[in-house]
Amino acid sequence: MMKSMMAGFGIVMATSFAAQAADLGRPAPAAVDYVKVCDAYGEGFFYIPGSQTCLKIGGYVRAEYRAWKTDDLFGSVYGLSNGVKGPANNTFTTRVRAQLTLDSRTNTEFGLLRSFTEAWYTVDSGSSSPSVDLWKAYIQLGGLTAGRAQSFFDFYTGDHYASVFETAHSDSQVNLLAYTFSFGNGVTASVSLEDSTTGNAARRMNGFGIYGGNKYPDLVGNVNITQAWGSAQLMGALHHDQPSYNNKSEWGYAVGGGVTVKLPMLGAGDSATLQAAYSKGAVSYATPDPLFGYDFLPKSISLVSPSMNQTVAWSVAAGMTHNWTSKWSSSATVSYLDHDGASSNFLGLGKFQLDYTQIDAGANLVYTPVEGLTIGAEVEYKTAKFSNGNIFLIPNKETDAVVGLLRVQRNF
């Protein structure tokens, strides 16, 4: 019996040693490279495995349902011929949009290296396939910004959704090359070269197809202060107006300033903003959404005329956000635009000059039942009163439109 047990034990040990000897000839299994949280830049970042780069993936899914009321003049002037912006023929439209953002950051010997990408995938009423917009895509290293980003002229872009009608302020994504100087205590100054042909807010207001080639980028600058009380900014831009009918060009310009004040005495996250802008030959810096806009027109019917008249526009905008409770909030924005159109007789129909004032307003009530989900109802209104025009184009009258919408959005 004892001999049998000893023999069995010997067999087991021999088999074990043989297995271990065989394993010595095999490579060790690779260590599992787990994803690690990166807390250096806030919540949501993680280390890309095998690197010192932190990445954050975000975005949203949004559904909107819109009900319209417009008059005939508004539809004809604003180009409302489809369901995207609400035509005279459609009183109900929809929009579904998915946003995806990628934010990567790495500390280097030259400062923070960052790349940011934001893409939109949208399906509107009247379309069976999505449109794709590269909304932002830029690289930052220290104070340098290169790529497609928010114009450095922009400061206040409204408090409410502004899903259909934007209030009068500058709000444009453009291809740019910029540098920001930091002076400490929240004070910065930026200078930017911006491609006016790439702005989503139509940086080149092209009245009647008379805009010529793009010879120079817009030169934009700002001085900004951001502190615990809020923020403020002064900004300016030079914009080149090049006509297609001759080589005589002129420079347009825009200046503006705004201030945002936090209101913790009313509620956490509450704020109020006031902003004003003035432009000549650069309408989109005063408003991204004019009812009728152009930067300039030739002075007379002769297209060989060496001169032009530039449009003057100025705007004032104000807004506020208030959190009623942790789940309920409201935002409202209102603006006034004065558009003094350039006078011209180039159509051969007598003197043409389109002057008007425009009022935009929007307000909403937003419910957040759980973190990341918002359900909001909003009303947006636009009206314009024309004081000068041409009977063949815009008669002297008023026009307006109102849109009510319901938005359901899931952020991640």
Question: What does this 3D model show about the protein?
Answer:
The chain has 412 residues and is mainly beta. It has a domain at 61-80 and 149-411: Porin. It contains two helices and 19 strands. Strands 2-3-4-5-6-7-8-9-10-11-12-15-16-17-18-19 form a 16-stranded antiparallel β-barrel. A two-stranded antiparallel ribbon has the order 13-14.
Taking pLDDT < 50 over at least 5 consecutive residues as the criterion, the unreliable ranges are 5-9, 11-19, 80-88
Average residue-wise pLDDT: 84
Q: How many beta-strand runs?
A: 19
Number of helices: 2
User: What is the assembly state of the chains in this entry?
Assistant: single chain
CATH fold-level label of the domain at 61-80 and 149-411: Porin
CATH architecture of the domain at 61-80 and 149-411: Beta Barrel
N- to C-terminal distance: 70 Å
Order of helices and strands: HEEHEEEEEEEEEEEEEEEEE
Q: What is the 3D shape?
A: globular
Give a quick account of the main beta sheet: strands, pairing sense, barrel closure: 16 strands, antiparallel, barrel
* Gyration radius, in Å: 29 Å
Estimated helix fraction: under 10%
Helix/strand/pairing category:
mainly beta
For the biggest β-sheet, the strand order reads 2-3-4-5-6-7-8-9-10-11-12-15-16-17-18-19
Strand content: over 45%
Q: CATH first level of the domain at 61-80 and 149-411: which class? A: Mainly Beta
